[in-house]
Amino acid sequence: MRKLFALLTAAAATLVLGATPAAAGTVTVDYHCAVGGGIVAWDVQYRTTITAPASVAQGQTATVKIEYTGVKNWTTHSPAGTYNGWGSFKLGGAATGTITAPGLTNPEIQPGEKMRFVGASAQVSFPAKGQVTYTPATFNYGPNCIVWTPAGVAATTSVV
For 128-142, what is each residue's pLDDT tens digit? Predict the structure, then answer.
């Protein structure tokens, strides 16, 4: 009976201390993009998805991903890997700061499809209990794109 109790206790501790399955949230964000020091600039919307754990234990580190999908159709063929860069998101609530997520790139996109930038992720630490929110920030895929109007919270993690 003691062995069974010890086994169940260890299993429960593993479940409590591990990050729970990821929860993704998407917000539509207005970005202002520019190249050449702002010589060429344009406004554009992207559906920005942040995937973060639904809950984690205090002190744990977890992977958070950010992806971008255009609202308008792309006009040209772009082979996979044509664009490379990084995404970023702001932490709020029980954690603060701006996290840069490297690894952003595009899959192959045909004319008439929505441009997608995928593959960006970063490790986030959770030092305090409470709710941590994630809000899209600047991203770069060659052009630098800043948030033009305030973005909404895309995801939340509960730190226990």
Answer: 999 999 999 999 999
Q: What is the pTM for the complete model shown?
A: 0.85
DSSP secondary structure string for all residues of 105-139: E---B-TTSEEEEEEEEEEEE--SSEEEEEEE--E
For residue 85, give Cα distances in angstroms to 35, 93, 110, 123, 150. Answer: 14, 27, 20, 17, 22
| pLDDT tens, residue by residue, 13-40 | 333 445 666 778 999 999 999 998 888 9
| Closest C-alpha to 26, from 64, 56, 67, 55 | 67
Q: Which two tokens stand for residue 26?
A: 């998407």
CA 69 to chain CA mean position, Å: 12
CA-closest candidate to residue 88, choices 36, 131, 19, 141:
141
| DSSP code of residue 37 | G
Torsional class of 41: left (φ above 0), alpha (ψ -120 to 50), beta (otherwise)? beta
